[in-house]
Specification:
This protein is mainly α. It has two domains: 2-41 and 172-377, no CATH class; 47-169, 3-Layer(aba) Sandwich (D-Maltodextrin-Binding Protein, domain 2), CATH 3.40.190. The chain has helices spanning 2-15, 17-37, 39-42, 60-71, 114-140, 145-152, 158-161, 175-188, 192-204, 207-213, 218-247, 262-286, 290-308, 319-325, 329-341, 351-377, and strands at residues 49-55, 75-77, 85-89, 105-108. A four-stranded mixed beta sheet has the order 2-1-3-4, covered by helices on one side. Helix 4 (60-71) links the parallel strand 1 (49-55) and strand 2 (75-77). Helix 12 packs parallel to helix 16 (351-377). The longest helix has 30 residues, at 218-247. The protein starts with a helix and ends with a helix.
Length: 380
């Protein structure tokens, strides 16, 4: 009897093509869009400015400056029509006999944030100051080799002046590492749509009442319903991982890498699916119509996602919001995935988040069974 119930649920789920598309296509598209859109925001590599240089001076000094700018990876030299910044080197800039050189003019094309403009100016300032120091060193060498060597040793390279270290507890993911687990977590909780549709239709058609009259318990009914969704959830996880590993890189975006334990990833995804199925099952039992279930489920998912770091990454949140995020099961799942994808965590690393998800899902499943049992006994 139980195997027949499970088979029935698989057939009902597979017939709902629109719901299956929502579970697989929607997260995959979001992963691709968000990974590409946030590629530069999450990148820890040096920012590059599309720059054009107009040299009206055409002297050895101006050409040296132009060469130095071209050698700096922060500047990507392009034509004026494609440039975001145009550097105008005025006539007379390289006149060594002039007491005061005319200013370099920076033309900003389009709209750019003030912090981006200031960063561009700082990068350009480094090259200008290095050039000036080089000229001073050359002139001093005619009078004092020691003084010239002292000035020549001054470099404005940040690598020479600073050692940059990241706090291990505050590692920042790249766009793909953030997008893939985010939309796995968020997409998995949308199983409320097919589950509630089947639950409520069977209740209205008195299918559940007939099963109850055949002494099929609420436990068996609930268990037969969650098995297909647990199976689908696991496929969903690996499809999304595959999108991050093989599709996203085609759009010049970092590929997803599983740096941690694959066994840990499997266990975490199973625990997350239990939590998602538990919440979906409870909402499906409580709701009186598919519209009501979809509304409650959608609002619940958005609230849990907003709190749990799906809409806004947790490391962008203030401390108070990061603390509040810990009440969301989506946050637990997201933290576990980041432990594996970003920090190379092993099986033990994700045990805490996994057990919290399992406990959350188990409590909701038990509650849904109790409510279903009461409704069946009342003939609802």
């Amino acid at each position: 009897m139980f195997s027949a119930l499970v088979k029935k649920e698989f057939l009902l789920v597979l017939r709902d093509k629109q719901a299956l598309m929502a579970l697989f296509v929607m997260p995959a598209i979001f992963i691709l869009i968000m990974s590409v859109a946030m590629r530069d925001i999450f990148s820890q590599e040096s920012i590059s400015f599309d720059t054009a240089i107009v040299d009206a001076d055409n002297t050895a000094i101006s050409k040296t400056l132009e060469k130095d700018i071209a050698a700096n990876k922060s500047f990507h030299l392009v034509d004026q029509s494609e440039a975001g910044f145009i550097v105008h080197i005025p006539k007379g800039y390289g006149d060594e006999n002039s007491a005061k050189s005319p200013k370099i003019e920076i033309q900003v094309k389009g709209s750019a944030k003030s912090d981006v403009i200031e960063l561009f100016k700082a990068k350009l300032l480094k090259e200008v100051v290095d050039l000036k120091l080089g000229i001073i060193t050359e002139r001093l060498s005619e009078f004092s080799d020691e003084a010239a060597a002292a000035v020549g040793s001054v470099k404005l390279s940040t690598d020479a002046l600073f050692d940059l270290r990241y706090n291990e507890k505050k590692e920042v993911p790249n766009a793909t590492q953030q997008s893939v687990p985010t939309w796995i977590v968020f997409g998995m909780f949308f199983i409320i749509i097919p589950m509630s549709t089947i639950y409520i239709n069977e209740r209205k058609q008195h299918t559940l009442a007939r099963l109850n009259s055949m002494n099929v318990s609420a436990f068996s009914i609930t268990l037969s319903k969650i098995i297909p969704y647990l199976f689908i959830a696991q496929i969903q996880v690996w499809v999304m991982v595959a999108v991050g590993m093989f599709i996203v890189p085609l759009f010049n975006t970092p590929a997803l890498e599983i740096n941690g334990s694959v066994a840990g990833l499997v266990f975490l995804s199973f625990a997350l699916s239990i939590a998602a199925v538990g919440l979906s099952s409870l909402i499906a039992v409580i709701a009186d119509s598919t519209e009501q279930a979809t509304t409650i489920g959608g609002i619940s998912n958005i609230l849990l996602g907003s709190i749990g770091g799906v809409m806004v990454p947790k490391f962008f949140m203030p401390e108070s919001m990061q603390t509040l995020a810990n009440i969301s099961p989506m946050s637990w799942g997201l933290d576990g995935f980041l432990d594996i994808f970003l920090k190379g965590g092993d099986f033990a690393t994700i045990l805490n988040e996994s057990f919290m998800l399992l406990l959350f899902g188990a409590i909701l499943l038990i509650l849904s069974m109790i409510l279903l049992h009461r409704k069946l006994n009342r003939g609802l």
